[in-house]
Amino acid sequence: MSKNDRDFNFSDASLLSYGEVLAATMPNDVTNFNVFDNTINDQYPVKITDAIAEVKNIRTDQVVIDEMTEHTQAVNNALAACNSYYKTVSFFVRKAFKGNTAVQNQFGLNDIAKVRMNVPKMIIFMNDIAGVVAKHQKQLVEAGCNEGLLSTGQKLGEDLKNCNVNQQRFIKERGLITQERVEKLNALYALIRPVSEIANIIFADNPAKLAVYQMPKPKSSTNSHDDLVVS
Fold first, then answer.
1. Residues 168-221: pLDDT tens digits?
2. Of 105, 102, 104, which Cα lies nearest the Cα of 143?
3. What is the CB neighbour count within 10 angstroms for residue 96?
4. Superkingdom of this entry's organism (predicted)?
């Protein structure tokens, strides 16, 4: 079984909602449960409440996905900024060094097509270009290139590197966040499942009360009474 496998077959939201209903309802019925199973006492609803709080303290899958999207967008923006910078510089490289293929290639005109959409390669490329630009800055400025623009190349490369590091770090963190959340959800499920199972016995002749304690229906439910508890 994967570390991220849930022990229940319904939504996380359904589990949390059901747990909250139990925590609010059980204090009125805890004596009935205790007579049947003396491990379920007046502290049991408190344990359920605490388990719910532990789940809610961890970012949901949707929040994590949104944060991942934010990191991806930051990388894409930084990569676009590097490409925009190079597009301008390469225009003045061709102008300043027209016909000089050797110098043009020092600026990566023969390499840019292979790196423009590859983040790790572009990071290295931008670092290399910064040195070449510094070496030939005078000629580029004389050709009409803005001197202030030329000096931004190294920072753009650093920004791309930082965004990429943040994204890669979050990718690793994301797995740990999901694993921890699933562990907390399964711990909550382990607390509330016995309550539902016992309720099916002690409230078998009380349909209204039994309905309160029935587990949420599994995603593949056939609405059978027997499939209300996941085995």
1. 999 999 889 989 999 999 999 999 999 999 999 999 999 999 999 999 988 664
2. 104
3. 20
4. Bacteria
Over residues 4-55, the pLDDT tens digits come to: 689 999 999 999 999 999 999 999 999 999 999 999 999 999 999 999 999 9
| For the chain, the helix, strand and coil percentages under 3-state DSSP, each to the nearest 5 | 75, 0, 25
Which residues, in sequence order, are CB contacts of 205 under 8 Å at separation 6+? none
Q: Which residues contact 172 (CB under 8 A, 6 or more apart)?
A: none
Residues 6+ apart with CB under 8 A from 41: 30, 34
Instruction: Show Cβ contacts of residue 80 under 8 Å, excluding neighbours closer than 6 positions.
Output: none
Cα 102 to Cα 124: distance, rounded to the nearest angstrom: 20
The residue type at 218 = P
Among left, alpha and beta (phi > 0; psi -120 to 50; other), residue 230 is beta
Q: Where are the alpha helices (DSSP H) in 97-152?
A: 101-106, 112-115, 119-135, 137-142, 147-150
Q: Looking at this protein, which amino acid is placed at residue 208?
A: A
Number of residues assigned to the chain: 231
Q: Distance between CA 42 and CA 34 in Å, rounded?
A: 9
* Lookup result for tokens 């590197």: 161
